[in-house]
Amino acid sequence: MYIDFHDKTKTVAADYIDLLQRLLDFAAEKEGISKEAEMSVNFVDNKEIQELNRNYRQKDTPTDVISFAMQESVEGEMDVIDVIGEDMPLTLGDIVISVDKAKEQAIDYDHSYERELAFLTLHGFLHLLGYDHMNKHDEEIMFKRQDDILGEFGIER
Fold first, then answer.
1. What is the pTM of this model?
2. 126 near 93, Cβ under 8 Å?
């Protein structure tokens, strides 16, 4: 899977990006996602994610992760027609993670920054695939899937 990482904070170590690449590749395989799929992971500060949260979710507070799924259809939106054929790579979308929130939450949840980045990255990835937690049933499914993948990958609380 092709993942374009952008670190606007210039604080995310190359080791962490390598770990997240391996985690996303592992999760993609578990979810049956094509090796040709594309996505991006963007690391920002609280100020930038608050702007995104305000503009796209009408919530004027910083959040930890936001996903922008490209395969999600919105009511009233026209479907994208594949005129070129199946040779086109599947574009999953973009994940935006607040490094500030990741650091805060690692302390709040008493686990490592590495584990929090992995959790947020996987959480955003599952949103790109259509998982959600808008109700209790969907939340149980999504959170169990997150725990299963993180555990199998070797990242525990």
1. 0.89
2. no
Q: Tell me, what CATH number does 61's domain have?
A: 3.40.390.30
pLDDT digits 0-9 by tens, 24-48:
999 999 999 999 999 999 999 999 9
Q: Phi/psi at 74 (nearest 5 deg)?
A: -110, 140
Please state, as a whole number, how many other Cβ atoms lie within 10 Å of the Cβ of residue 37: 19
Sequence-distant (6+) residues with CB within 8 A of 95 are: 39, 40, 41, 42, 65, 66, 67, 68, 121, 124, 125, 127, 128
- CA proximity to 145, closest of 122, 112, 128, 114: 122
108: containing domain? 2-153
CA pair distance 36, 27, nearest whole angstrom: 14
> Side-chain half-sphere of 155: how many Cα atoms within 13 Å?
26
Q: What does the pLDDT read at residue 101?
A: 98
Determine the angle formed by the axes of helices 14-31 and 136-153, rounding to 10 degrees. Answer: 120
At 83, which amino acid appears? Answer: V
The number of folded domains in the chain is: 1
Are the beta carbons of 100 and 62 closer than 8 angstroms?
yes
